[in-house]
Design goal:
Oligomer: single chain
Order of helices and strands: EHEHEHEEHEHEHHEHEHHHHEH
Strand content: 15-25%
Strand order of the largest sheet: 3-2-1-4-7-6-8-5
Length: 348
């Protein structure tokens, strides 16, 4: 079933692509937020809703919204994707690309239990002037106390900011965040096609796409001006997703939380910066000494890379001692020490 309303002829097309499974209770909040979006001048908005084997009233709720919306609404129903978030999100994006047509446009994706801020489109479209893939911020809503998750996210936010001190890039946002969530992503249709779409993973399809984009040489911008709110529910649709993490924090608190060791991450960040410089200058000796690969090997990798971003992501291996996972408190202390001794960020 596909229903549509409206037309965006002659305008830049924006398609918001949403996979949904049995979300009849939450879709009205999303639809209200879509209606409240401020539309940038010269753009036309489509909502592309992929109903993934729904057995509740989601289809009826969506059909009612399509009849009264001011936007172009497309609804597709498919057989259930066996709890595979990657397949469902990719199908939603394919629907969006089809709606935008051969002329292309901008694909955004979010979740059925999420709701964007009214300025989401403007902030995201502005960010696309600087980068190829925009990863916006995701803010948990609701009244639940999630101290453990808050602390983990604060650690990773500080770690990402430290990354950009070590390895600044010209396309990064001044106000950054650390998320890589399908609840808030945007890219042009050509970029999505070049990446081959979200991989068919049960969870983590969003983070993989971000990694794939960087390795392909696309500019990934983590822009906190682009904001989507999401539920803090404890029973979600994706395996090992946010809901599962929140349940784990409820059960265990801070006990057992292990995160990436910042010393290992810092080794990679600094090596990335050296690799970018080496790609631009053609001199591989310094990065060779840092990562333990021969200059000839690095030159071979560079020949297959379209730009310095791709080279940095492909040439730098994991640290010699591996990527350690340590208790959160240990990581926080280590990161504070690194930040206290790190030099100021250089210009990208």
């Amino acid at each position: 079933m596909i229903a549509s309303t409206g037309s965006g002829d002659g305008l830049t097309g924006i398609a918001i692509c949403v996979p949904a499974r049995d979300e009849s209770d939450r879709l009205p909040r999303l639809f209200d937020a879509i209606e409240g979006l401020l539309l940038p001048p010269g753009t036309a908005l489509s909502l592309c809703l992929l109903l993934d084997g729904c057995t509740d009233a989601s289809a009826a709720v969506a059909d009612d919204y399509a009849r009264r919306s001011r936007h172009d609404i497309h609804i597709a129903m498919v057989e259930r994707c066996d709890a595979n978030a990657g397949i469902a999100r990719h199908r939603a994006m394919q629907l969006g690309a089809t709606v935008l047509g051969d002329g292309g446009g901008v694909l955004l994706t979010t979740d059925a239990d999420s709701w964007p801020q009214s300025d989401w489109l403007g902030a995201t479209m502005a960010a696309l002037h600087h980068a190829d893939l925009i990863v916006g911020d995701v803010v948990r809503g609701g009244h639940a106390i999630d101290n453990g998750q808050d602390r983990v996210e604060l650690y990773y936010a500080r770690l990402f900011a430290f990354r950009r001190r070590c390895d600044p890039v010209a396309w990064e946002a001044a106000h950054m965040h650390h998320h890589a969530s399908g609840a808030n992503m945007a890219m042009r249709t050509q970029v999505y096609a070049a990446l081959g779409g979200f991989p068919p993973l049960a969870s983590g399809e969003d983070a993989r796409l971000v990694d794939d984009a960087a390795r392909a040489g696309f500019r990934v911008r983590h822009d906190a001006a682009s904001v989507v709110h999401t539920s803090a529910r404890r029973h979600g649709r994706a395996q090992d997703g946010l809901a599962a993490n929140l349940r784990l924090r409820d059960r265990d608190g801070l006990d057992g939380i292990r995160v990436a060791h910042p010393v290992d991450q810092a080794w990679q960040y600094r090596a990335h910066a050296l690799a970018r410089l080496a790609f631009d200058t053609g001199s591989m000796m310094e990065v060779s000494n840092a990562v333990g690969l021969t200059p000839d090997h690095l030159l071979g990798v560079a020949r297959d890379c379209p730009n310095a971003e791709a080279f940095a992501m492909r040439a730098v291996p994991i640290p010699p001692g591996g990527m350690r996972q340590v208790p959160l408190a240990v990581a926080e202390t280590a990161l504070a020490a690194l930040c206290a001794t790190a030099p100021p960020a250089r210009a990208a």
